[in-house]
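Could you please consider the sequence and fold following this short note?
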Amino acid sequence: MGKLVAYLRIMRPANIVTSVADILAGIAISGVLISSVTMPWFTIVCLCLSTACLYGGGIVFNDVFDAGLDKIERPERAIPSGVISLTNATILGTLLLVSGIALASVTSLTSGLLAFGVSCFALLYNKVGKHHPFFGPLSMGICRGLNLLLGLSIVPEMLHQHYFLAIIPVIYIFSITMTSRGEVHGGNTKNLYIAAGLYAIVIGAIAWFTFVNERLLWSLLFLLPFGWMIFKPLSKAIKNPIGKNIGGAVKAGVISLILMDAAWAVTFDVLVLAFIIAALLPLSLWLSKLFAVT
């Protein structure tokens, strides 16, 4: 049982729930739930399982590539503590990424290519990007942008119409990743203020899309708590930029992605799915109490 918990810990289950929310948001944007006579359950399940594998594999490789550094900064983690060997972690991460690509490919070649892109950028970030102040956050943001498009690829033709929406999660994750650099040793307020500005841009952009689609009032059900969830811990970190406060801001930023995805579903007139996505928030919060988010 201890081994199983350790393997779950390095996969960050609370984070995986947020990646599933991205897929559901992409599916909402595609319009397939409105236009289809029958619900494409099999495809939806495949895409959700695909993103779970991709995110889990990417996170596992994060710990694999950080194994040496974690011996110094986070020796309690599964790999440096010896609970899971570096070899077994590498095998697990590889199996998860390959499974994610395979599951997406069942949907379409386009979905498979997007899943492959997520894997490549995740590995790029883990191996090289995380050490660069700009390209690290950018590569991680691209992973989330591609993840939204992975959900949208349930109707490949719709990618040509809505591909530009991926820039919103790219900006958002860029700001979270940039903020997380001070999680261990503390950070400076400059990055935190930049993150606050980027958060505001993200909320403003989604609000504009909902206004154009005449769904602004409904979207506020999710955008207001979304703003509260991300700005409250961020303001605390700005006042006192110690590692603990920054870690709290990063954790809130990751989990609150669920509310952002719910707002996307409202924007494209899939209100029921928006509430289903929002219902993932308690699950992610519960898992975050059992397993680390960062």
